[in-house]
């Protein structure tokens, strides 16, 4: 009975940024819960390896698509491709994202446009294209990967924080629009999670400081994101919508020391 709440047998999920990090972990968890999965990212070698790894371990259909989420036409086409290849998309884990730190004074239009497009606009475009099918089936789950940086920030992180906070706001409106059609819309807001993304931006001392500021005194693992993602993507989370689940090890609890 309890297990059936998280059972995704018969569901199909699309996971952007599914070749590594949080996206790959969540795609595998969806597959373990019984869903067919389509993962996408830019680099084919990593995508192929991730898809093969999941498919070899689990008796579900796993496919991949090479997509640059900065290419609007490709994002729009991805929705059609997913419906054509997989038959339907019930769960959208809208997760591909990046962080290109720059202070206000150093902000360039090019970096601004790129991160806004990737972290926010592309997420809306993909959801917009997939929602009609969810409405027709009267069941859908949309999960945006926000960040603890929607709620607290650091110098140079204004653009990243802004896009992640924008997802939190957009989620509330979409939850109200889509709730009557059996669709929930939520954000998962990770704290520091050991993936390539933060590791490429932080030195060893900064990494230690992040861990020290959490309540649990450690970095998150991709595995720590799987439970919250499954909750928001299954029948277990049917009454959760418009919400943002902070999975940050208590990072934002602390004020100055
Ligand atoms: N890790 C953290 O501490 C943390 C904390 C809070 C929020 N987040 C958020 O979690 C999400 C996943 O991050 P992660 O930590 O798992 O990072 P990651 O390991 O670097 O994975 C990022 C994924 O996104 C894909 N991607 C990046 N740019 C893309 C583009 N233009 N088009 C299509 N796919 C693209 C990457 O594949 P390709 O490079 O092949 O395209 C990869 O699959 C992001 O939205 C991030 O902002 C992460």
Description:
The chain has 257 residues and is α/β, with parallel strands linked by helices. The chain has one domain (2-247): NAD(P)-binding Rossmann-like Domain (Rossmann fold). The chain has nine helices and seven strands, in the order H-E-H-E-H-E-H-E-H-E-H-E-H-H-H-E. It has helices at 2-5, 21-32, 44-57, 72-86, 109-137, 158-178, 196-199, 204-213, 222-233; strands at residues 12-16, 36-41, 62-66, 91-94, 140-145, 183-190, 244-247. The chain has a seven-stranded parallel sheet, with helices on both faces. Helix 6 links the parallel strand 5 (140-145) and strand 6. Helix 2 (21-32) packs across helix 9 (222-233), helix 4 runs parallel beside helix 5 and helix 5 packs parallel to helix 6. The radius of gyration is 17 Å and the shape is globular. The protein starts with a helix and ends in a 10-residue tail after the last strand. The mean pLDDT is 97. The structure holds NADP nicotinamide-adenine-dinucleotide phosphate. The site of NADP nicotinamide-adenine-dinucleotide phosphate has 28 residues, from helix 2 and helix 7.
